[in-house]
Design goal:
The protein is α/β, with parallel strands linked by helices. Helices cover 36% and strands 29% of the residues. It is built from three helices and six strands, in the order αββαββββα.
Length: 203
């Protein structure tokens, strides 16, 4: 005896299966997007033709020279490039003083901070009249890739300019912290931009 299954039941059963399949699809898709969105963007996934872009070769990062009046700027840029090399490049970073196949050295040439977007403020208050509503920070840097044994310059990028802005309010205590955040952002932008150009062999 084979009981006959009502059409309504079959329809409901198929709907449940379809909904579950769609839910699993969106769940897996969301997991994939989250996994690719976190952390540094990998710069070593595709095949590169530059002779210095071989996976596993050693590279040493010399400390940046700072020719600007902004103290400690070299620390931010050296750290940003170091983090990017470790997390998202094909090379193996070695410590200072160790022999390496390649050497990266950079110079911070200029640093500027200028007010833009003036606010008229309160005409009756001298201190608030004509104050800046935003500040633009710009950094100019140069970087060279050297052959580790001979010191021959393989690639040179000069005059790399990066700028960003931050909003100013009347809380003067926040000026330094906001400018520091902008510098961190500029250092990260610089590190990713330069390494991308380096891996693509752009000169």
């Amino acid at each position: 005896w084979h009981p006959e299954i009502p059409d309504e039941f079959l329809f409901l059963f198929l709907c449940v299966i379809s909904v579950a399949s769609v839910f699993r699809f969106f769940l897996y898709s969301s997991m994939f997007v989250l996994s690719t969105a976190c952390g540094y963007h990998r710069l070593d996934r595709q095949q590169r033709t530059a002779p210095w872009a071989k996976t596993g070769e050693t590279i040493r990062l010399a400390r940046f020279r700072n020719l600007t009046p902004r103290l400690g700027l070299e620390d931010r840029f050296t750290k940003a490039l170091e983090d990017r090399l470790v997390a998202a490049s094909p090379w193996r970073l070695v410590a200072q003083g160790e022999a390496s196949r390649w050497v990266l050295q950079g110079t911070l040439e200029s640093y500027s901070s200028r007010p833009i977007g003036l606010s008229l403020g309160n005409a009756g208050t001298t201190a608030s009249a004509g104050s800046a509503s935003r500040v633009e920070v710009a950094v100019v840097a140069s970087v060279e890739l050297l052959e580790g044994q001979t010191g021959v310059v393989m690639l040179s990028r000069r005059g790399l300019t990066f700028s960003n802005q931050y909003r100013v309010d009347q809380n003067f205590a926040s000026f330094d912290s906001r400018e520091a955040q902008v510098i961190e952002s500029l250092a990260d932008d610089f590190a990713e931009s330069f390494l991308t150009q380096l891996l693509e062999g752009i000169d």
